[in-house]
Amino acid sequence: MSEPAIRIASMNKYYGNFHALKDIDLTVAPGEKVVICGPSGSGKSTLIRCINRLEEHQSGTIAVMGTVLDDNVDHIDEIRRDAGMVFQNFNLFPHMTVLENCTLAPVLARKIDRAEAEATAMKYLERVKIPEQAHKYPGELSGGQQQRVAIARALCMSPKIMLFDEPTSALDPEMISEVLDVMVGLAQEGMTMVCVTHEMGFARQVADRVIFMADGEIIEQGSPAEFFNNPRNERAKAFLSQVLGH
Amino acid sequence: MSFAADFPKDSAFNKAKARYFATPTDAVVSALFAAFAVWILWSLANWALLHAVFGANQRDACMATEGACWSVVSTRWRIVLFGLYPFEEQWRSAIACVVMVVVAALSCVPWFWSARRLPPLWIAGFAIFYVLMRGGWFGLREVTEQNWGGLSLTIFIFAAVSLLGMPLAIVFALLRRSDLPWIARTMALVIDVIRSLPLLSIMFTFAIVMPFVLPDWAIGDKLYRVIVGYALFFACYQAEIIRGGMQALPAGQEEAAKALGLTYWHRIGYIVLPQAFRNALPPTINQFVITFKETSLVTIIGFFDVMASGRAASGNADWNFATIEMYVFVALIFFVFVFTLSRYGAYLERRLGVGRR
Ligand SMILES: Nc1ncnc2c1ncn2[C@@H]1O[C@H](COP(=O)(O)OP(=O)(O)OP(=O)(O)O)[C@@H](O)[C@H]1O
Ligand SMILES: [Mg+2]
Questions:
Q1: Dist. CA B262–CA B355, nearest whole Å
Q2: Tell me, what DSSP letter sits at residue B12?
Q3: How does A131-146 read in b/e, with b if 16+ C-beta sit within 10 Å?
Q4: Is B63 among the domain residues?
Q5: What value does the mean pLDDT take over residues B40-66?
Q6: Distance CA B291, CA B285 (A)
Q7: Are residues B214 and B109 in the same domain?
Q8: Is B65 domain-assigned?
Q9: For this UniProt entry, which segments traverse the membrane (chain B) (predicted)?
Q10: Rounded CA gap, B279 and B265, in Å?
Q11: Using 50, 70 and 90 to split pLDDT, how confident is the model at B46?
């Protein structure tokens, strides 16, 4: 069997004395799409941010594409190049144009020459359907457009895995679908995806596996069909009835 | 009554009437102040213009009038601008000053606001300034720092302090927010200590005390010691300004840069500092204004900056009755520099206030 895309084993994370992630075990196969959901404060963001070292874990192992995440800066850089990330509030660089946002990291971190990086950036901007905004500043775009730029920016690094932390929850309702469409397209092309989201329609449509977290633990996981139709855990049931609105 | 009614309601006349002549007491006070202001202006104009002597070398005419003796300025302005710099070489000093003023003006153009353009501009400008002033190269006669003076010395000190202090300020600001607590805390302590000392005492320490403390090879010229001390002082204030600009950045900016695999220096150079400087532009300009003005403190350590040169120019037996005129001239020079800078700061504040983001 091939190396998993992400392998997390008995990983623990503390914020000071607060035990934020408890004994997490999670393996994501190449090409797999995993949706993480759970109540607020359950540790979803913390988990996904540990994968690329935006947060440091205290014990256990995390490996991405075979690279073990430790204090070695080269390993951290390699993992960050392999795993693209999309944030809830976009985090585009406001002092750069859309195109500059998309070419900065390829030119600096991957040492690709500018012309080639710009061609790649235009390709991805077309893919997220906003090539005509390339020379605008982020502040001139709508939320949905900004989030699509953020996805394009991450894709420009040719990542093997994409991490999404609630990519649609800061958006106005009418803009959610334009972002989800892009994500569905990405999934269909076979990208490995780990996605924290409460968009259950999206989860049903693309997820291979749904993971339910509460209080820093993975409480339940299974295929979308299993999870949505037949949640075993009480808290998962309560959570589902809340987000699905019945 | 009917007189005022002839004017539209919001005319300047009616506004003035409402503001300054609403009650009889108001009217009396306003009239008194107006008369006083007119009297001051009139006396000033009389002194500075109507009865003044403008031409060079007119000491006798000066003695005869009760007006201002601008003759002292037109006779001895070279001392104010160039100090003791040799007369035949003063064109070099003049060009050097113009170069630095052009550099300062270009730094105000947004196109230059990048790490790849601003430092080379300043380094090039400063190098030209130094080569022109100091000579010894390209067939230029050597003029050592002891003979520098006047406005050109002031500009030299200001430029050197900025050029040295700004990178230092960035380093201080970065150390101040280091992840290692003992580095961050030590830096905070150093910054706070230096900021709590008067600039004058720092200059004295570097000019007079340092030679006893430092090994011989590190002593250097007194001028450069004062510049280093002043740069350190500048850096501590500017570091706090930059830090303020950094704190205004949302945490997500650095996280996004990390997630893209950018190294620490790339994150600092391309994401954090450009935005921090943009946030901190108005206080930064303010800091430059203060720094320019306070260069005049070096007179106390015995340098002939523009201020001391002004005093020297009117200090000989021929002209010592015209000290005030000389000081007015020096004040005017400071005013031109500082007022331009602060107007520019105000313009930027307005521009950035409505700007993007
Ligand atoms: N920097 C931090 N310092 C201390 N505690 C933190 C920090 N970040 C998160 N926490 C705590 O860790 C727990 C998990 O937070 P996390 O942000 O991962 O939750 P989440 O599942 O993403 O919630 P949400 O749905 O609201 O985004 C919460 O109790 C939170 O208060
Ligand atoms: Mg979260």
A1: 27
A2: H
A3: bebbebbbeebebbbb
A4: no
A5: 76
A6: 10
A7: yes
A8: no
A9: 20-42, 91-113, 120-140, 152-175, 196-214, 326-347
A10: 20
A11: confident
List of chain B residues whose C-beta atoms are within 8 Å of the C-beta of residue A53: 258
- If you search the block for the tokens 């153009």, which residue do you land on? B109
Q: What is the value of pTM for the model shown?
A: 0.84
Region B66-77: mean pLDDT is 74
Burial annotation A203-231 (CB, 10 A radius, 16+ → b, else e) = beebbebbbbbbebbbbbbbebeebbeeb
pLDDT value for B152: 86
Smallest CA-to-CA distance from B173 within B284, B88, B68 is with B284
Q: Hey, are the CB atoms on B357 and A94 less than 8 Å from each other?
A: yes
Amino acid found at A220:
E
Q: According to the model, what pLDDT value does residue A114 have?
A: 93
Q: Compute the C-alpha angle B184/B187/B189, nearest 5°.
A: 110
The yes-or-no verdict on residue A55 having pLDDT over 80 is yes
CB contact under 8 A, B278 and A95: yes
* Bigger pLDDT: B7 vs B100: B100
A-B contacts at Cβ under 8 angstroms: 70
- B208 and B118 within one domain: yes
The structure tokens listed for B300 are 């106390």
Q: Into how many domains does chain B fold?
A: 2
User: Measured between beta carbons, which residues in chain A are less than 8 angstroms from residue B275?
Assistant: 93-95
Q: Is residue B69 part of a domain?
A: no
CB A199 within 8 A of CB A167: no
Q: How confident is the model over B315-339, as pLDDT tens digits?
A: 777 777 777 878 888 888 889 988 8
For atom 25 of ligand 1, the residue with the nearest CA is A40
Taking alpha carbons only, the member of A37, A27, A35 closest to residue A5 is A27
For ligand 1, atom 16, name the residue with the nearest CA. A43
Contact criterion met (CB < 8 Å) for A109 and B263: yes
| Average pLDDT of the residues in A150-156 | 95
Question: What was the ipTM of the complex prediction?
Answer: 0.92
The answer for residues whose C-beta is within 8 angstroms of residue B316's C-beta and 6 or more apart is: none
